[in-house]
Design goal:
By secondary structure, this protein is α+β, with helices and mostly antiparallel strands. The protein has helices at 35-51, 93-105; strands spanning 8-13, 56-61, 73-77, 88-91. The protein has one domain (8-109). It has two helices and four strands; from the N terminus they run βαβββα. A four-stranded mixed β-sheet has the order 1-2-3-4, sandwiched between helices.
Amino acid sequence: MPTARPPVIISVKDVGGAPYCSHCRQRPAPHMQTAQWADWWRQLIETRDRRSPRALPLLCHKRAGHTSPAEWRWYADSGHLGRYRMGPVAITGPQALWIMRRHIATWGER
């Protein structure tokens, strides 16, 4: 088992097999109120608690037709964004990158 603890844990998900919506002809993107999304978040938090409780958990949902992670949907624990703990919140790709850099920079200070 490695001795180093990861400062950031990213879980990337893709719903490639989801059926197309008959109305808009696009694959529906899971959002925070779906059971599938809640299951993804629970698995991510369990992994974080098991591997490194102080790590930053990020959930990323790959969007169809978008190859850049900056354009995907990102979710972070609000405790890492400020002092209030409200649970997971949606953020943009550039915000996720900024949060990761800030968290990694302060990792050794804790």
